[in-house]
Design goal:
Elements (H helix, E strand, L loop, with lengths): L1 H27 L10 H8 L1 H4 L20 H10 L13 H13 L5
Helix pairs in contact: 1-2, 2-5, 4-5
Length: about 110
């Protein structure tokens, strides 16, 4: 009986964890007010672990986005295809989501 309850709670925990993770990923793609894709939310979900909220964290060799000199097109290419240790997001995010993330990243720049 105890083993049956332990299995039930283990299975329930796994389902809850998986549903929270997939919910966070699907919530990231929800449109912002006005129907636009929410680049800040996508950035928060996928990018802050290495880049930090302000783009300056630099974990795992992540570049400091606040001083990036890349053009918009170059940024889109990096997010799409990855670079060095950065994962490519072409199979994770749509083109509109990648564009929205790049638009958000460009707001983090402190140097022109």
């Amino acid at each position: 009986m105890v083993l049956k309850h332990a299995f039930f709670f283990t299975a329930l925990s796994a389902v809850l964890i998986l549903s929270c993770a997939s919910s966070a990923e699907s919530d990231a793609a929800l449109p912002a007010p006005g129907g636009r894709v929410n680049g800040a939310k996508i950035f928060s979900t996928y990018c802050t672990l290495c880049h930090g909220k302000d783009g300056k964290l630099g974990l795992s060799d992540a570049k400091d986005l606040s001083i990036s000199q890349l053009s918009k097109d170059e940024m889109v290419a990096v997010v799409t295809n990855g670079r060095a240790t950065m994962t490519p997001y072409k199979n994770v995010l749509s083109k509109a989501e990648i564009e929205a993330v790049v638009q958000h990243v460009r707001t983090l720049k402190t140097v022109e």
